[in-house]
Write a structure and sequence with these properties.
- It is a single chain.
- By secondary structure, the protein is mainly α.
- 74% of the residues lie in helices and 0% in strands.
- It is built from 8 helices and no strands.
- The radius of gyration is 18 Å and the shape is globular.
């Protein structure tokens, strides 16, 4: 096996795609866990949602560290954590940074501050996963070097269709669910 396979360039590409896959899985499992038609599977869906979210976030961190350590394109730490600081594709790089911080806010509030925030505020903050996921997808689509490959483009397209379909199902279920009347 060639040592080139273990280059930072390959780790950057692989970790970015893996993070996107895991966060898509997490968002999908979260949406499925909220649907009444799957209420018997809710504990499993929540476990998959939380585990894939945290692993996806850790893979994002790895992606950022490998970018910082890459010797071919020397990124400064500020270019990796401050939006629009990158000289190469500043807007698309910023999308990835926005996604990272939005996911961080959601994970931190969900696992560390949910009880202090209260369920209503927590749910509103938790909805930030949707723009975070969109930013992550746009980052990968427009800055990812593998997007021109049919397989990778299909992953992005399939993920977009999946999340849109689950959102539509969740919204439709909420529309047709009877409202609870308070005495």
């Amino acid at each position: 096996m060639s040592l080139e396979f273990f280059s930072t360039w390959h780790f950057i590409r692989f970790s970015g795609l893996l993070a996107f896959f895991l966060m898509t899985f997490s968002v999908s499992a979260g949406l499925l866990s909220s649907m009444t038609m799957l209420k018997k599977k809710k504990p499993l869906m929540l476990e998959l949602h939380q585990t894939s979210g945290w692993i996806g976030f850790l893979v994002m961190l790895f992606h950022m560290v490998v970018l910082w350590k890459d010797e071919y394109v020397s990124y400064q730490i500020a270019e990796i954590i401050i939006p629009f600081m990158d000289d190469y594709a500043p807007v698309y790089s910023a999308f990835g940074i926005f996604a990272f911080f939005l996911f961080l806010i959601v994970l931190a509030t969900s696992d560390f501050f949910m009880k202090k925030l209260g369920r209503g505020l927590w749910k509103k903050i938790h909805l930030l996963v949707l723009p975070a996921w969109v930013f992550m997808m746009l980052h990968g689509l427009f800055i990812g070097t593998d997007t021109e490959q049919l397989g990778i483009a299909s992953v992005y397209a399939g993920s977009a269709v999946l999340v849109a379909l689950l959102l539509a199902l969740r919204y439709a279920e909420a529309l047709f669910q009877p409202t609870k009347k308070t005495p």
